[in-house]
Amino acid sequence: RCWAEPPLPGWPLPQLVSLFLPEFPVRPSARQQQLKILGFVAKGSFGTILKVLDCGREKVCAVKVMPKVEVLRRDTLKQCKEEVSIQRQVRHPFVHGLGDSWQGQRHLFIMCTYCSTGDLHALWRAAGCFAEATVRLFAAELVLVLVYLHDLGIMHRDVKMENILLDERGHLKLTDFGLSRHLQWGERAHTICGTLQYMAPEVLSGGPYSHAADWWSLGVLLFALASGEFPVAPAGDHVAMLERVKQSSYESPPTFSPALARLLAELLCHNPLHRLRYLHHFQGHPFFHGVAFDADLLQKDPVAVAVAPCPPEQPPPDLATFADFDYDLATPPGRPWPG
What we know:
Residues about 1-15 and about 325-339 have low confidence and may be disordered. A hairpin with a 2-residue loop joins strand 1 (about 35-45) and strand 2 (about 45-55). It contains eleven helices and nine strands. Helix 6 (about 130-150) packs antiparallel against helix 8 (about 210-225) and helix 8 packs antiparallel against helix 10. The protein folds into two domains: about 15-115 and about 310-325, 2-Layer Sandwich (Phosphorylase Kinase, domain 1), CATH 3.30.200.20; about 120-305, Transferase(Phosphotransferase), domain 1. The longest helix has 20 residues, at about 130-150. The radius of gyration is 21 Å and the shape is globular. The protein has helices at about 15-20, 30, 70-75, 75-90, 120-125, 130-150, 200-205, 210-225, 240-245, 260-265, 280-285, and strands at about 35-45, 45-55, 60-65, 100-105, 105-115, 155, 165, 170-175, 180. By secondary structure, the protein is of the alpha+beta class. This is Ribosomal protein S6 kinase related.
């Protein structure tokens, strides 16, 4: 698609657009001139993630670029608004926070801090599995994040290794709130969404389900971290995956300590009402003996991130700043978008 094409009918209408999309305001073009595109990080159905240098703050950031036409075609506008709304609401040391969000004539943009150390999945694949002492610290950080989100009425719905970044000291940063939603206590969801291997049985069956589904996902994640493999092999669709989940006993390997095996049994419980979910459940659990669920966690370095492979980056595109493509609502740019 070439940005030299005629502007959309009725454009520019920045005030009107901002009125209907307050989560994605229109930014002054002078501000965007300070954003230099360094290259691609990833590309998927959600759009493209770019590595960007904020010259004004001398800081490297990651920007998710979502074509409006795809957002409308997939009927995910409400979810995009919810994603930004949730990320503006949450402030937690183990959450990858929102830096900014804005819109152009044809794209929506979400900017966050760039994590050069990669994600937990890349580190797990390089390591094979982790010692229980490391799993314990990772688990404690994720417990604090999920309790925090659930207390705000937020269900993440896609807790998995690929959505957990690492900072330079090895602490976790939960990211990608694209499937998250506000869900008050007593309310239930029915949408089948997430990643098949991490989905709770009540999600795979089409609901109703609630925040307890996140705890199941945590159980799957911890099982994989400690053993090097997932408790259930992947299936092609949610129906086949549900059958595999129903038939699995989720027995822990003999190499797991009794405390870890008990924790996983209490997370990977088919009845969501019987799963661990409250902070005091974890604080008093044998697996977390000696772990302080407070700021002291930040003083411990869970793992050396030097062994974590950095995410692959593509060569920089033929774009220097955001002014070189779709940003300014008043002036449609004239360069093609690569790819």
